[in-house]
Design goal:
Elements: E1 2-7, H1 13-24, E2 28-30, H2 31-39, H3 44-54, H4 61-71, E3 81-84, H5 90-99, E4 104-109, H6 112-120, E5 122-125, E6 131-133, E7 152-153, H7 160-183, E8 187-191, H8 196-211, E9 219-220
Parallel strand pairs: 1-3, 1-4, 2-3, 4-8, 8-9
Antiparallel strand pairs: 5-6, 5-7
Helix pairs in contact: 1-8, 2-3, 6-7
């Protein structure tokens, strides 16, 4: 079972991926994690990725595909995986299809106001990058990381105006990708406006029912 998770910034697809990877016992492959792991290696590729990211540039499709190709050959991917963060464009999707087949594409959605509230309340540890929330997952001590005791801060791209711009760009770039997978009969849409902590079990049940062929749609999980 090879799953692809789509969703805008702040929709929570990384959190849902972690929930489903535990339920299905298949690995969650985040391209963000792959890139960060590669930069920690003393290799030419790692240094090239780090330089590109430090300059605010986008890592090439060729490099991303190579990292994914290597990762899905690992033994823990024998029964499938959840791919999160790639592809983001139709061109990337076509490159991925040359590498491996995807069996299901789950497109996670939430109302714009919900996403803006989630992201604009997000605060991140400056050192270990652990994520907290001003109204949801609050740190035990205000503006101090529970894990390492470092200072928390809000990223510039998590401020309301920046979030709105990110959503606009995401929708413009991803609409062709969504249409691409929908035309292949692989896409299912899932709308989740409530915190996953309130509906975790429902999310797992609904997604597993879909993957097992017991239903052909999911819709909004309340």
């Amino acid at each position: 079972m090879k799953l692809l998770f789509l969703g805008s910034p702040g929709v929570g697809k990384g959190t849902y991926a972690q929930v489903i990877t535990e339920a299905l016992n298949i690995p969650h492959i985040s391209t963000g994690d792959l890139l960060r792991n590669e930069t920690q290696k003393d290799t030419g590729l790692g240094k090239k990725i780090e330089e590109t990211m430090n300059q605010g540039g986008l890592v090439s499709d060729e490099i991303l595909i190579q990292l994914i190709k290597t990762r899905i050959k690992d033994k823990d991917c024998e029964n499938g995986f959840i791919l999160d963060g790639f592809p983001r464009t139709k061109n990337q999707a076509e490159n991925l299809e040359k590498l491996t087949g995807i069996t299901h594409v789950l497109n996670f959605k939430a109302n714009d106001e919900v996403i803006i509230e989630r992201l604009s309340g997000r605060i991140v540890c400056k050192k270990c990058k652990t994520i907290f929330h001003k109204t949801g997952n609050k740190p035990k001590i205000e503006n101090i990381c529970d894990k390492c005791g470092s200072e928390l801060h809000q990223r510039e791209d998590d401020k309301p105006d920046s979030v709105k711009k990110r959503l606009k760009i995401y929708k413009e770039k991803t609409e062709p990708l969504i249409a691409h997978y929908d035309s292949k009969g692989l896409l299912v849409e899932i709308t989740i406006n409530k915190p996953i902590s309130e509906i975790r079990d429902k999310v797992i049940l609904k997604i597993k029912s879909y993957l097992e062929g017991k239903t052909d749609k999911i819709g909004e999980i309340k």
